Amino acid sequence: MFDGLLTAIVFLPALAAVAIALVLRGDRTVRLVAAGAMAVDFLLTVLAWLRFDPSVSAPQLVDKLGQYDTAPWVPGLNATYYLGVDGLSLPLLVLTALLGMCAVLASWHVTLRVREYHVLLLVLTAGVQGVFVSLDLFLFFLFWEVELVPMYFLISIWGSGRKEYSAMKFLIYTVFGSALMLVGILLLRLSAGTFDMPALIEQGQAGLIEPAFLSLQAIFFLLFFAFAVKLPVWPLHTWLPDAHTDAPTAVSIMLAGILLKMGGYGMLRLNVGIFPDVAQDVAPLLAAFAVINVIYGALIVFRQTDLKRLVAYSSVSHMGLVLLGVASMQSLGLSGAALQMFSHGIITGLLFLLVGLLYDNAHTRHIPDLGGLASKMPVVAVVFLLAGLASLGLPLLSGFVAELIVFLGSYSAQPLATVLVAFGIVLTAGYILWTLERTLFGPELPRFAEVRDAKPVDVLAMLPLVAAIVLVGVYPALLADIFKLGIAGILPG
Amino acid sequence: MVSMIDLDLINPNLLHLAPELSLFIAAFAVIVLDLVARDKRLLAWVSGAGLAIAATLALGLWGERATSFADALIVDELSVFFKLLFLGITFLVVLASQDYVRKFERFQGEYYGLILFACVGMMLVASVGELVSLYIALELQAFSLIALAGFLKDARSAESSVKFLLLSAISTAVMLYGMALLLGATGSTYLTDIAGRTREAFAAGRLADNAPLLLALVFLLVGFGFKIATIPFQMWVPDVYEGAPTPITAYLSVASKAAGFAVLLRVFYAVFGEDTVATDWRMLVAVLAIVSMTVGNVAAIAQQNIKRMLAYSTIAHAGYIMVGLATLTQLGQGSVLFYLVAYSFTNLGAFFAIIAIANRTGSDEIDDFAGMGRQAPFLAFVLGVSLVSLIGLPPTAGFMGKLYVFNAAVQDGLWWLVLAGVLNSVLSAYYYLRPIRVMYLGEPKAATSSLPSLPMRAALAISLGGVILLGILPGGLIDLAASAVRILTA
After folding, report:
1. Which of A117-131, A190-204, B377-391 has the lowest mean pLDDT?
2. Which site among B331, B418, B422 would you substitute to test the A interface, given the most A Cβ atoms closer than 10 Å to its Cβ?
3. What is the pLDDT of residues A74-115, one digit of tens each?
4. DSSP symbols for B428-464
5. Collapsed DSSP state (helix, strand, coil) of residue A3
6. Is the peptide bond before A232 cis (omega within 30 degrees of 0)?
7. What b/e readout covers A447-458, taking b as 16+ CB neighbours within 10 angstroms?
8. Distance of CA A294 to CAs A305, A325, B178, B457, Å?
9. Contact flag A214-B415 (C-beta cutoff 8 Å)
10. Which residue, of A343, B224, B295, B458, has the greatest Cβ tally within 10 A?
11. Which position has the higher pLDDT, A26 or A292?
């Protein structure tokens, strides 16, 4: 079986990166090629969506090279090259390509070492796409690691503030998580005898032979730990504010928009999919952490004076909702978690884009120094308002739908946690409105007389995200149905 | 009473010794040529040709299983695998030495000659089945390397050589004592005889009850531990590595270590392979592995000199490989061979890049590598990829190597050992990234330019290619490694 479309989607950015690294010269050419490659990549993901059959929950558009047992790609480990999408991974794949495209556009103003920058950004995108479409556990881990080194360099070279510290912190946290995940994956392979993810999920926990020396819970948590670092779950979140704040705009978009979703995706696919019983057992624990994430994250936001740090902490809070959805352990809550991941990806991607624009023009992110920018930057202000309202969960925008489905799903399973988290949503509304008011409104300040509005290329970067937020908000079935299909494949019944 | 030597009994099949013999001849040819040749580059070419011929002859032995020279020489897949590995490493070192040897106009013949002698020694180490021959083979490679370590003739290099000589002598003496005990306890110096006797002895009781054999095992472990540079026999490593000529450091760090593991595999699994005994010494190996990884990685963090940093890193890597050794399965033994090849490409790539970069900057200090990402993109890339491979991130050989070793250990129930291994990888990321950060983030100190020679660039390209190829398509090598270790339990 080799369809080829997914392979093309994953490797197109990587090929563009190679071309930029070896052949192309001139900043303008590099930018155009990178943007072109990502645009084509995005269209290919749309094509994948169109070709996707929404009545089948099994993986589709499968690319498989080699066979398990007879001719694996990595003998001895019996791993093979196996890609495919289902209802869970398809939207995330589209999201990655979409945000990757926006990130390239948002990088138009980068002037430092343009060639290297785009090479790294494209490799990063390819790696994350690979994570979402891998159906072989080994391949999944391999792609999981690809993103690390590019991200490290993107933050430490093109970042600001304590960039080298933040980059190293990000790297050490992530490597720590993936080190434990590697042990978990090897143990999982020992007890299940295969790296074939669809087979693993289909046989579920019944197919696992508990190793003589370690319980299944231990394997569950070894995997969970890596995803908890990525999502992030309190108290493993401390890398996030530093990395997001010091990263360049486009990289913050990728970090918040997609990289965090790798964590949620891993939880859904592996923890819930392969260990449904263990997940059910530990669900109250996860719900407790979800509450802490939401409330703690939201409270911390109030103390932030750096606009970018503020958005970063709001991500911690919002990712708590994903965890709550996972803790519900039933299909509605799980699809809510998936939807929240998608929705947060586009909203926070947009927010970071706007913060970047604001900073580029006003030259400060210090909230007390800002104010009255609405009249100087009308386009930015309007979109900022929209993104903010989507983030606090205004109906008809994507955030509302996601939160609602999570709550509907989790209330029956984790009522107390759901009520507490719902309180956190009130806090969110508070800090978002307060922030919007302090930054955009109020008297016009003379020091911002020279401030300019977004350039056409910036508008081009914003448009698809705005469109997606509204589209998902108005017509949520578009995504909800497909996620439901994906969840049905993971947690039948 | 010494009687007539019975040739039939000795059975000197020269074909079985052909790789070593041809290389021996090449080594002498190089030394003699040095007296007459004007263009010293000829020496390198002759060495390379000798290595190529030896490799061809060794390849011809693949698949054959025989013993000759009174059963002292073993021909099997395991020995041929290691022979090819040593020949390949030596070939790359010879390629990469060509820029470096300009530092010493004289004695180039001896330099190449000694490298080849060391290679002969290591090839024999991997192929002998008799303790006295083993001892001689080990000494042949050790003395060649000791002489090479002092080749720069400055204070550091001399210190390096003397330190190497003294500590090597002590460890060899202890090892020899172990061999004597083994001979005393079993009445033979042949591994196959010894294995038979120990099997009888162990049938009676555990290892701890048999003092001579227990002591023999520990003493042998000391000797071999010195070769593979594991804790607590690692004290020589940093100083020797720092002072020796860099190509020799590269050579030491991979070939000498691989030779140590070759003999460990052969002797330990053969002589102490009995299950009841093996479960005892594997715990010893596992504990040494953990200590080696941790101490090596922690000590490496503080280093300013990149050669010293990599010296500590090789100690850590000895630990990773011992994780595979602690398993008693063929999967684990195969993973050790795979790791050794992956590690050889990686470490050689790193050291070769360091030679070329130090040639430009005149320094081995990490801080002086600043700005190389822009000034020497290819060199910086090779060093960067090699370091990433040493961390063990995909898509590199180091990743696959660690994966195979750790997988074998998990399959064998040693999950705690693997946990220690992966946490050590996290630790190591911190210091391996530092040179990368300096090269790509730092500002260049002064404009330098010195293009590496064509052979050097070839050596760099081959190492880089090996690192990436094994990281993407490990299948061929893992199959070879699997068939090479089949002899150990058959």
Report:
1. A190-204
2. B422
3. 887 888 889 999 999 999 999 999 999 999 998 888 888 888
4. HHHHHHHHHHHHHHSPPSS----PPPHHHHHHHHHHH
5. coil
6. yes
7. ebeebeebeeeb
8. 19, 12, 64, 55
9. yes
10. A343
11. A292
Taking the alpha carbons of B190, B191, B197, B201 in that order, is the dihedral positive or negative?
Answer: positive
DSSP state of B477: H
Q: Report the C-alpha gap between B328 and B283 in whole angstroms.
A: 11
Token pair listed for B68: 């000759």
User: Are A179 and B410 inside 8 Å of each other by CB?
Assistant: no
Q: Among all chains, which residue has been given the structure tokens 């929209």?
A: A386
Domain map of chain B by residue range?
275-490
Which chain A residues contact residue B388 at CB under 8 A? 149
pLDDT tens digits for range B282-330: 888 899 999 999 999 999 998 899 989 999 999 999 999 999 988 888 8
Residue keyed to tokens 């120094």: A369
- DSSP-derived secondary structure letter, A306: B
- Select the residue of A72, A153, A212 nearest B440 (Cβ to Cβ): A153
The answer to whether the CB of B91 falls within 8 A of the CB of B51 is yes
List CB contacts (< 8 A) between B422 and chain A.
Answer: 179-180, 182-183
- 3 state DSSP class of A169: helix
Instruction: Return the residue of B nearest to A177 by Cα.
Output: B426
Residues in chain B with CB shorter than 8 Å from the CB of A72 are 475
Tell if the CB–CB gap between B411 and A190 is shorter than 8 Å: yes
Give the span between the Cα atoms of A268 and A43, in whole angstroms. Answer: 26
Burial class (CB in 10 A: 0-12, 13-18, 19+), B153: exposed
Residues of B in contact with A155 (CB under 8 A): none
State how far the Cα of B21 lies from the Cα of B32, in Å rounded to an integer: 17
8-state DSSP, A255: I
pLDDT tens for each residue of A404-435: 999 999 998 888 999 999 888 889 988 999 98
Distance from CA of A437 to the nearest CA of B (A): 39
Contact list, B411 vs chain A (CB under 8 Å): 186, 190
Confidence (pLDDT) at B2: 45
**How far is residue B30 from each of residues B51, B53, B54, B108, B252, measured CA to CA in Å?**
12, 15, 15, 9, 21
Question: Which phi-psi region, left, alpha or beta, contains residue B262 (left: φ > 0; alpha: ψ -120 to 50)?
Answer: alpha
- Per-residue pLDDT of B143-170, as tens digits, reads 999 999 988 888 888 888 999 999 989 9
For B256-280, letters b (16+ CB in 10 Å) and e give bbbbbbbbbbbbbbbbbbbeebbee
CB contact under 8 A, B433 and A179: no
Of residues B348, B330, B345, the one with CA closest to residue B481: B330
Q: Give the predicted TM-score (pTM) of the model.
A: 0.91
Q: Are B198 and B274 in contact (CB under 8 A)?
A: yes
Label each residue of B269-335 as H, E or C: HHHCCCHHHHHHHHHHHHHHHHHHHHHHHHHHHCCCEHHHHHHHHHHHHHHHHHHHHCCCCHHHHHH
Question: With 80 as the cut, is the pLDDT of residue B359 above it?
Answer: yes
> Does the distance separating the beta carbons of B430 and A153 come in below 8 Å?
no
